[in-house]
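tool_log.txt
---
The assistant was asked to compare two proteins side by side. It first ran the structure predictor on the initial sequence, then on the second. Raw inputs and outputs are pasted verbatim so the downstream comparison step can read them without reformatting.
(1)
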Amino acid sequence: MRSPAFVRRPLCAFALLGLCALGLGACADTLQDRPAPPSVLEPLVMEEHLPVYWLGGTFRRLGITDVGRDPSGAYEIQYGNCLVGGESTCVPPLAIVTSPDNSFLPGGDTARREVSVRGVHGRAEQGGRTLIVATGGVVVDLYADSAALAHAAAETMVAIGAPGIPGAPLPPPLPDTGFGERPLPSQQPPFAPAG
């Protein structure tokens, strides 16, 4: 037995309204991050063991969207909304990573070329979209969606919490600081009280 037309039309209208709501929800940009609050920069400013490089609160209209520190002690600052990714994954238009291990230059056997960045030698990879610069006791990696953006960031980066002038010469690399020879805090056994 079929429902009368006056019952079917409201049901169809509600179903259509529900599908429209789902469709509009699917159009929402789930890859966009909110700008990071200034408080997330506090640990970087207070870092005493290494200079953490950044590009300011915004760079080329890209605001800071995430700040993180990995177990090795490297700091990453992401600029701009995710271009690729989803939950727990984000590939931003620009990221700058400061690593305390100056004995390790990432990249392995990938195609690369030597470049000069503000008076120090660096490496360009992925068509210039990745720049790796050893300066002072750290290695700074720049990952960008274009070579022009990576090079502009390299000319602008300064240590956060220290006086610096974008474009000024960078400190020459220090000899191996021995960071890779020390175990990470996560690799140390927990302290056991005596007695």
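(2)
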Amino acid sequence: MMNMKLSHSLLFSVLALALSLAGCHRTEIKEKTVVEKPAAEHQEVVIEKTVPALRDCIYSATTYSHGSLSCQAGYQYRCNDGTWDSSGRGC
């Protein structure tokens, strides 16, 4: 019976020692923050292009904007940068 107590006691001691050593070898995980920086600074490039305004057309004392249609003397005309172009269609 004494041998049985000794083996249980020895087993318990070995187990306690193993658990205490396991606590000593903990692995710690540390967070890393990665900040990505662009390889080169991006600069905004603005290209301005001046487009001349398209001229209006006038018919019978009424002003029409570029692209407008007007019925004149039974035919359809379109305002094209200040001049009337006939569409060849009747109205």
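---
observation on (2): Residues 2-24 form the longest helix (23 residues). The radius of gyration is 46 Å.
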